[in-house]
């Protein structure tokens, strides 16, 4: 039942808590690019890959009482925190999703900030392009974020690291 | 003369019920329309299975694509022409992107993409950049021109103004599909004053904006969109047909993987089922092909595939009830068990389908959001986000409506010749009226 919703809840449950809508979007996108079975469609928006379907499903899960969304003011900024509720956990027990191997990847990504994950996901979005073109894309499309060449290189290294974490499971 | 600037000796027109005429003067546009990849769109319906609910909805993605092109042509050749912030050199890029924006759609895209995890936008990119007739025409304009067109459609172009013409909360794509879908379904909602909208549209740095004096036309458009989603796009009967189509694809793939001996082998789907679908194979798929298989698979020995196909062909669709997953997930679990015990495979015959729409939303400074707002151009030249000025839009902004339904084959449950007791229990859980009460 609601298989795709269950997977998102599963990812949230594994992570414990995800702080920030942007971070949640980028973590699921990166996980999907690493071949974990998320079905949501992503398009390129102004913070990089973004899925309207994912936003929708998280809102639905919140409305169903399976996911708790806490809106908090942080300085002049509004931030959202997401956790799975007790009802959500009960639901998950009945429809346990197969997300083996995802926990280590999610834990790794959850330790990063949203700005860096935005860069990582953008690099992954343009993975059909050569590195130099990807850099050019980031400098023009994400000029406001002022990413440096060093950060872009870090993003490439980070993707390799994630692939290694994910690979034993993906190859199994 | 440079190919990009070549004009036809005489203007060509397509008669169109929505825009009256679609005008073509550019050689590039005429050549693109003639390519086999664009002609394929004639064989893909704009609204998928909606024709089983609204019998008029037989219009194709071909006519919609021409419509989007025509709206953008009016914008570039009339509304924006010679205005500040508009670069006339972007005209051909805008027209090509408008015409080709849906090029990668497959047959019944929604169901196909759901079952096989495909992405029509990726196929649009591949058609524009790959070895195709479309690519050949675009390359005649310039070596990098196909890439530029693909980037506008993928929203990864740095030219945000051109992107916003085809993809934003009020763009040529939405304007055309609302009017066209309203016309062909025959519903009375969905209409708005497009002439007025275009008259008040202005180019502004990185997006198209609307003069404040035209706010009511924008309101009308937002409300039309809201009504069309719930009255047409999310119609529960259309969703039932889509559920069945999705299950047909699932069943065919499952049987193929299990080496089931098809009487009518799925040769068109072979590479898709084997996860090695090439662009060439993808372009051979259209709704004629899909409907052919659904027709002949009615003769298969597999009872599930045969039954689902017959349901689709004869419009013997699943019935539905309202369903609240939060309160009723234990009921669903029980139903799954009972369906299996009654010999009705719940994987194919018990389906929850959810629909949800957000009529309008916007990014507020200081909040995390990814939706660019519709901006009004005030008399003093300032921009104001639409819902700040419009009480009607403010009332529905950011308000999502979701609807969950549970679909099932009523006829199989009512047939008590086998597993009568289990089926009566199913009927009670679904709160179905007894046949004597219908």
TrEMBL record, chain A:
Superkingdom of origin organism: Bacteria
Q: What is this protein called?
A: YwgA family protein
- Provide the species name: Heyndrickxia faecalis
Phylogenetic classification of the source organism: Bacteria, Bacillati, Bacillota, Bacilli, Bacillales
UniProtKB/TrEMBL annotation, chain B:
Q: Name one GO biological process term.
A: dGTP catabolic process
Which terms does the record give in the GO molecular function aspect?
A: dGTPase activity
Q: Which Gene3D superfamilies match?
A: Hypothetical protein af1432
Matching InterPro entries, A to Z?
dGTPase-like (IPR050135), HD/PDEase_dom (IPR003607), HD_assoc_2 (IPR045509), HD_domain (IPR006674)
Checking SUPFAM superfamilies in the record gives:
HD-domain/PDEase-like
Coiled-coil regions listed = none
Domain (HD) spans: 61-178
Instruction: Name the PANTHER family on file.
Output: DEOXYNUCLEOSIDE TRIPHOSPHATE TRIPHOSPHOHYDROLASE (PTHR11373), DEOXYNUCLEOSIDE TRIPHOSPHATE TRIPHOSPHOHYDROLASE SAMHD1 (PTHR11373:SF4)
- This protein is called what? HD domain protein
């Amino acid at each position: 039942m609601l298989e795709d919703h269950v997977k998102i809840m599963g990812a949230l449950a594994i992570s414990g808590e995800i702080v920030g809508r942007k971070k949640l979007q980028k973590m699921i996108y990166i996980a999907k690019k690493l071949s974990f079975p998320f079905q949501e469609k992503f398009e390129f928006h102004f913070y990089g890959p973004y899925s309207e379907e994912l936003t929708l499903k998280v809102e639905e899960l919140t409305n169903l009482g399976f996911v708790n969304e806490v809106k908090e003011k942080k300085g002049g900024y509004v931030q959202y925190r997401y956790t799975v509720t007790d009802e959500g956990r009960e639901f998950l027990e009945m429809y346990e999703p197969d997300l083996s191997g995802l926990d280590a990847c999610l834990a790794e990504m959850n330790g990063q900030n949203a700005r860096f994950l935005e860069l990582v996901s953008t690099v992954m979005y343009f993975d059909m392009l050569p590195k130099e073109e990807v850099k050019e894309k980031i400098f023009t499309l994400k000029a406001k974020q002022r990413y440096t060449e060093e950060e872009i290189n870090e993003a490439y290294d980070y993707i390799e690291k994630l692939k290694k974490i994910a690979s034993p499971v993906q190859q199994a | 003369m440079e190919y990009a600037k070549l004009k036809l000796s005489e203007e060509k027109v397509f008669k169109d019920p929505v825009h009256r005429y679609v005008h073509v003067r550019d050689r590039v546009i005429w050549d693109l329309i003639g390519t086999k990849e664009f002609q394929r769109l004639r064989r893909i319906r704009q609204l998928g299975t909606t024709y089983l609910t609204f019998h008029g909805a037989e219009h194709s993605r071909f006519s919609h694509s021409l419509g989007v092109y025509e709206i953008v042509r009016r914008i570039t050749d009339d509304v924006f022409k010679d205005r500040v912030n508009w670069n006339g050199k972007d005209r051909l890029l805008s027209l090509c992107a408008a015409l080709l924006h849906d090029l990668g759609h497959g047959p019944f895209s929604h169901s196909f993409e759901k079952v096989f995890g495909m992405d029509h936008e990726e196929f649009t990119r591949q058609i524009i950049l790959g070895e195709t007739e479309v690519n050949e025409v675009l390359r005649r304009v310039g070596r990098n021109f196909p890439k530029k067109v693909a980037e506008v459609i993928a929203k990864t172009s740095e030219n945000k103004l051109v992107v916003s013409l085809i993809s934003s909360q009020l763009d040529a794509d939405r304007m055309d599909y609302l009017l066209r879908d309203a016309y062909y379904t025959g519903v009375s909602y969905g209409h708005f004053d497009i002439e007025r909208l275009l008259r008040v549209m202005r180019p502004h740095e990185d997006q198209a904006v609307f003069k404040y004096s035209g706010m009511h036309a924008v309101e009308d458009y937002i409300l039309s969109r809201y009504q069309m989603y719930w009255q047409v796009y999310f119609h529960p009967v259309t969703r039932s047909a889509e559920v069945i189509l999705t299950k047909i694809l699932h069943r065919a793939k499952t049987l193929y993987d299990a080496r089931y001996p098809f009487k009518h082998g799925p040769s068109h789907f072979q590479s898709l089922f084997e996860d090695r679908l090439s662009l060439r194979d993808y372009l051979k798929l259209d709704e004629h092909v899909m409907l052919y298989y659904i027709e002949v698979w009615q003769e298969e020995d597999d009872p599930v595939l045969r039954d689902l196909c017959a349901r689709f062909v004869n419009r013997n669709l699943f019935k539905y009830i309202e369903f609240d997953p939060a309160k009723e997930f234990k009921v669903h679990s029980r139903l799954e068990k009972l369906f299996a015990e009654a010999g009705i495979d719940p994987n194919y015959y018990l389906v929850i389908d959810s629909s949800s729409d957000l009529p309008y939303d916007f990014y507020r400074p200081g909040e995390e959001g990814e939706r660019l707002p519709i901006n009004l151009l005030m008399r003093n030249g300032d921009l104001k986000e639409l819902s700040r000025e419009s009480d009607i839009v403010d009332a529905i902004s950011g308000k999502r409506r979701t609807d969950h339904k549970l679909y099932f084959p009523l006829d199989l449950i009512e047939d008590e010749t086998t597993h009568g007791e289990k089926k009566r229990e199913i009927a009670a859980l679904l709160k179905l009226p007894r046949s004597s009460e219908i």
